[in-house]
Amino acid sequence: MRLVALVEAVDHVCCRYRLAAFRGPLEAAGHSLDLRPLPRSWAGRLALGRDLAGYDAVVLQRKLLPRIPLALLRRRVRRLIFDFDDAVWLRDSYSPKGFTDARRGRRFRAVVGASDLVVAGNDYLAAEARRWTTPARVVVIPTCVDMGRYDSGSGFRVPGSGLNLVWVGSSSTLRGLEQFRPTLAAIGRSVPGVRLKLICDRFIDIDHLPVDRCPWDERTEPAEIAAADVGIGWVPDDPWSRGKCGLKVLQYQAAGLPVVANPVGVQADFVRDGETGFRATTTEQWVHAVRALAADPGLRHRLGAEGRRWVEAGYSVEAGARMWVEALDRLARVRKAG
Question: Which end of the chain, N or C, is more open, meaning fewer C-beta atoms within 10 Å of its C-beta?
């Protein structure tokens, strides 16, 4: 099947992890994938699809098009696939207007209803999509990571040398970590020698917890994660965060790190107590988990190794590519039958 994806930008994190990463495996299976940035102008949106007749399917990533551009695109292309990895029918956790947005909701329902296939990043997102289309048209394909880019993690630092926590994200998600400052400060007070590496494009200071500033760079990100001891994941417990696909947790686990995270959304599935890390909700639970990992390098190694095996089995690029190939083959069969 010849595919073209309309994306926010070809170097955007969603495009890189959810589409571009699969190009090689898709080509090996007989498919092709081109990437194009969505036009930003109204005229460009109205022209969407005019030059796409030669493709078997168009992947619209995340964007909730207005009614007229969506109708024109749908009319001009053979098949429409919608791929999304956030609760895009809502405003985000930090909006002063609250989560509900009537316009986003209408556009989400329209895009889902117009699509031949809807690819959701997790079960929470898929459940919402299935409300507005034939459930069989919705599949879950998680955000996946390229295991080859990640070292296996250190795991065995010398006892007494301190513990290096790591958090990776962007300016937007750093707002969540800012809300988490009091717990991070409590960890700094309670666990001797603990430090926090921030891999980001913006940084914050935290009382009692030394912060190592590491400017984000796609080329060095995997090695910087793998050089730490423990990955941390914290998100607000709200409808927007339950739609997140847990990329940072997957990155930590791909690097062989144990993870401490609050059990919100997919983080509750990715982080299993005593197997791949520890779930923590209260400050006391966070301090206890970090203290236990600081005291036992063998525990860190065991949990990190299990997390890496788990990601490789279900959240690697190879695993995700198999899901895409199955979904595309099924879509092709449905079209022929129709």
Answer: C
Side-chain-side CA neighbours of 15 within 13 Å: the count stands at 18
Q: Are residues 152 and 293 both part of a single domain?
A: yes
Q: Residue 264's domain is classified under what CATH number?
A: 3.40.50.2000
How far apart are alpha carbons 311 and 314 in whole angstroms?
5
User: Is the C-alpha dihedral spanning 247, 155, 148, 139 positive or negative?
Assistant: negative
Q: Is residue 177 located within the same domain as residue 232?
A: yes
Do 279 and 322 fall within a single domain? no
Q: Quick one: 25 and 123 in the same domain? A: yes
Cα dist from 335 to 72, 79, 176, 328, whole Å: 20, 9, 44, 11
Rounded Cα distance between 291 and 257, Å, is 15
Question: What is the residue range of 293's domain?
Answer: 147-314
Sign of CA dihedral 152, 84, 117, 264: positive
Q: What is the pLDDT of residues 264-291, one digit of tens each?
A: 999 999 999 999 999 999 999 999 999 9
User: Over 90: is that where the pLDDT of 157 sits?
Assistant: no
Average pLDDT over residues 49-67: 97
Mean predicted confidence (pLDDT) in 289-306: 97
Q: Which of 108, 93, 133 is nearest to 265 (CA)?
A: 93
Mean pLDDT within 4-17 = 96
